[in-house]
């Protein structure tokens, strides 16, 4: 964080040339972190959230983009919270506007693999081998500021570093040089001049697919695997656990402690959480269910009530469900949610209220491709496919396989005998159960089939 007792770091910004630390914000694509310090942060209704105190980054190994994760904001009550960069709508010359006024009030605490620019990097000594700055090659130089830049994907990344090549002497001005980030050495995910295996691995895993991280974790020694898993945030670890076999899930969950294990289960998809709990002894499963938030445990309990070889045990209780008055344009916007798995985004289900499972009367469903071919103002209920039959919770897995093959789908509705939508079953979940139990451990191509 930004330590108030470190006066030297407070003075660093004043050493920079005016053009450097007063970069124009008319195009909010590039700015120095020091310029953000102290800026007012406002919600969309102009209410003041607080002021920026630091910038949190994830330093990646050479050849990978080092991302800006978010801001440390000091609220009016002096509490410091973390604000993700994707929550920022715009940066003006004197303030930062948020997409929405709701923020997490959890106190900021840096995780392993995260650094703060003002607290950890500014003022540190690094080496630079930028070909445009030959006079400072092989010399330790001091970091004065870090430039961050918005990418085409709307993420923010570190782009350049302002360094102090020589302190002022006899009235001469302190010399500031700008080096490209890729030519700056000595800063790792663990800190400046520090090497830490867990921090480096977390940085390496940052942009990897959860399935690939799951494989990589089990190539690590057991103690290191457990250390890295303990440092992953709940949502990320839940995504990774879902890509492991149930045996490995249970083994890793057992190392986390009972309370954190319950928090991880809350972040998992209900069907994956139910599968994992089936692998545990009844007493431990009951304890975890009791520790979970009741709203999160309720769908898991419903899924666990079905026989493991039925469609009911395979389905997810959180497909894309809308009411009959929703327009096609609104439905497409919901389907574009990046948090929605691809298979579930392929189908929109329509039901009478309530739209949370189990729903009111199920009216039908429509494939995403059909929605793309009708006018946006059309009500989604007018585009339903009346010929597509549903699956039932007590149908067998073979029935589900025949269903997908017959109708050329990757997702289908699951209803009860009274016509309420209970959830949806996706073809990837079906394949997961039809393949051998250890298929995730052996990879896409089992031993002997490698290319």
Automatic annotation (TrEMBL):
One of its GO terms (molecular function) is magnesium ion transmembrane transporter activity. The keyword Transport does not apply. GO terms for cellular component: membrane. Keywords: CBS domain. Residues 384-442 form the CBS domain. Pfam families: CBS, MgtE_N, SH3_actinomycetes. This is MgtE intracellular domain protein. It comes from Corynebacterium matruchotii ATCC 14266.
């Amino acid at each position: 964080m930004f330590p108030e007792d470190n006066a030297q770091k407070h003075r660093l910004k004043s050493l920079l040339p005016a053009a450097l630390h007063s970069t124009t914000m008319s195009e909010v694509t590039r700015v120095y972190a020091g310029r953000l310090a102290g800026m007012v942060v406002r919600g969309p209704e102009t209410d003041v959230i607080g002021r920026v105190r630091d910038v949190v980054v994830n330093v990646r190994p050479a050849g990978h983009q080092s991302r800006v994760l978010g801001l440390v904001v000091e609220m009016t009550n002096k509490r410091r919270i973390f604000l993700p960069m994707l929550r920022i709508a715009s940066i003006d010359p004197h303030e930062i506007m948020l997409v929405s006024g709701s923020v997490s009030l959890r106190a900021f605490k840096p995780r392993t693999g995260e650094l703060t620019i003002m607290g950890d990097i500014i003022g540190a000594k690094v080496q630079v081998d930028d070909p445009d700055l030959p006079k400072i090659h092989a010399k330790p130089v001091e970091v004065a500021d870090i430039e961050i830049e918005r990418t085409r994907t709307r993420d923010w990344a570190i782009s350049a570093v302002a360094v102090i090549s020589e302190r002022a002497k006899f009235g001469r001005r302190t010399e500031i040089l700008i080096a490209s980030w890729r030519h700056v050495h000595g800063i790792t995910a663990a800190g400046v001049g520090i090497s830490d295996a867990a921090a480096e691995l977390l940085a390496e895993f940052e942009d990897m697919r959860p399935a690939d991280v799951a494989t990589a974790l089990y190539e690590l020694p057991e103690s290191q695997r457990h250390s890295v898993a303990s440092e992953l945030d709940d949502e990320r670890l839940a995504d990774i656990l879902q890509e492991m076999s149930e045996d490995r899930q249970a083994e890793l969950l057992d190392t986390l402690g009972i309370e954190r294990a319950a928090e991880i289960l809350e972040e998992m998809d209900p069907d994956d959480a139910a599968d994992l709990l089936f692998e545990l002894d009844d007493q431990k499963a009951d304890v975890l269910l009791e520790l979970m938030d009741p709203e999160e445990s309720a769908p898991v309990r419903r899924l666990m009530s079905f026989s493991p070889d039925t469609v009911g045990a395979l389905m997810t209780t959180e497909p894309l469900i809308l009411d009959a008055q929703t327009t096609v344009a609104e439905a497409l916007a919901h389907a574009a949610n990046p948090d929605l798995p691809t298979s579930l985004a392929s189908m929109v289900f329509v039901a009478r209220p309530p739209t949370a499972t189990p729903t009111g009367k199920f009216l039908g469903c429509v494939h995403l491709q059909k929605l793309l071919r009708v006018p946006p103002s059309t009500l989604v209920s007018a585009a339903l496919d009346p010929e597509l039959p549903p699956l039932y919770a007590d149908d067998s897995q073979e029935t589900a396989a025949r269903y997908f093959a017959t109708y050329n789908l990757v997702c289908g509705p699951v209803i009860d005998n009274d016509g309420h939508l209970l959830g949806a079953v996706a073809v990837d979940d079906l394949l997961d159960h039809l393949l051998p139990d250890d298929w995730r451990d052996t990879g896409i191509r089992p031993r002997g089939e490698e290319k």
